[in-house]
Amino acid sequence: MRKLFLLALCCALSWSAQGGEAQPAAADPQLEKRVLEVSQELRCLVCQNQTIADSSAPLAVDLRGQVREKLEQGMTRDQIIDYMVERYGEFVRYRPAMTAKTVLLWFGPALALFIAVVMLVRRLRVRHRAAAPALLTDEERARAAQWLARNDETR
Amino acid sequence: MTTEALPRRPLIVRLILPLALFAALMALLGVGLTLNPREVPSPLIGKPAPGFELPLLQKPDATLSPQQMLGKVWILNVWASWCAACRDEHPLLMELAKARTVALYGLNYKDGREDAIRWLGRYGDPYAASAYDVKGRVGIDYGVYGVPETYVIDKRGVIRYKHIGAVTPEVLERSILPLLATLERDA
Q: Which residues of B touch A90 (CB under 8 A)?
């Protein structure tokens, strides 16, 4: 009886433990949208392959707060990114800037693929030409006929 | 049969060139393996230390600001009681403080005041004073992304060196102490 009572008590109490939806950080969805947009351009330096929009590291939370503050102060997206780059360096840009130094980073793989394809195509064309069957000369034809005849005889 | 022989490219193209390209790629990747992606180079080296005015950890009425430090070489060490690696470098900092080589100041980053004071009480306080950066805003200005971090600042208030992670004896011997000697000689 006691066990049943305890069970009923537990069930009754668990009713109050309801998960609520996470409250939005600000009442302004427009602002939040812009915070997200800018955050997706900034790298989380702790979890380096994530943006601060995706990362749950404490630093990412702080930096999102900074982004929100700067947006409220009226800074533009580029100004905020520059603000972060001033403090954390170019690596904080999630997408590397397009400069003389990073051109190879951006286009390198495509370029390598292009060269590889060109080389492959040329190689295949040469092979194809060389593999075209050469016709027998008359002398070779006669010799072949002889061998075939001899072959039939010895069967 | 008279098939045309496949035109053979010279040996240099078939063998040497791919091998050379491969070796170059391996060299590049090999160097890359020795680099540590966690060590993000700071853009602040050579720039003036960002200004701030923070209350002291143990004396909230007083403040610390880089302005007060002009004219002397000093080290700013970012630490926190929740940071395990800070304990690793702590004995070194205690030694540095005892040797009185340089003015050592702490930046207590995103910590509880009580926890931080208790931590110092427990392990020892090497700092002349610690600034209390509870929100971490000053940390952001200094590009802090993982405590502990250590900055060497010269007499004109310019950041000359930043070390990310716990300070090791090698770093101290090879980088920090020689730099301090050089900076002390400056006007």
A: 43
Is the CB of residue A130 less than 8 Å away from at least one CB of chain B?
Answer: yes
Task: Collect all residues of chain B within an 8 Å Cβ-Cβ radius of residue A86.
Answer: 43
Q: Does A61 touch chain B (CB under 8 A)?
A: no
The verdict on a CB contact (< 8 Å) between B146 and A134 is: no
Q: Do B41 and A89 touch (CB under 8 A)?
A: yes
Nearest chain A residue to B1 by CA distance is A136
Q: What is the pLDDT of residues B95-139, one digit of tens each?
A: 999 998 899 999 999 999 999 999 999 999 999 999 999 999 999
DSSP symbol at A31: H
Write out pLDDT tens, residues B31-58: 999 988 888 888 999 999 999 999 999 9
Flag if B143 and A62 touch (Cβ within 8 Å): no
Cβ-based neighbour number of residue B151 at 10 Å: 23
- For residue A104, the tally of other CB atoms under 10 A from its CB is 10
Residue B18, preceding peptide bond in cis (omega within 30° of 0): no
Measured in whole angstroms, the distance separating CA A57 from the mean position of its chain's CA atoms is 21
The β-bridge partners of B152 are B75, B161
Give the gap in angstroms from C-alpha B3 to the nearest C-alpha of chain A: 6
B7-39 in b/e burial notation, b at 16+ Cβ within 10 A?
Answer: eeeeeeeeeeeeeeeeeeeeeeeeeeeeeeeee
Are B1 and A140 within 8 A, CB to CB?
yes
Residues 6+ apart with CB under 8 A from B144: B78, B107, B109, B136
Q: Residues near B129 by Cβ (< 8 Å), separated by ≥ 6?
A: B56, B57, B58, B59, B62, B64, B105, B106
Q: Does A63 touch chain B (CB under 8 A)?
A: yes
Q: What is this structure's pTM?
A: 0.74
The answer to whether residues B25 and A112 touch, using CB atoms and an 8 Å cutoff, is: no
Query: What is the distance of C-alpha B150 from the center of its chain?
Result: 5
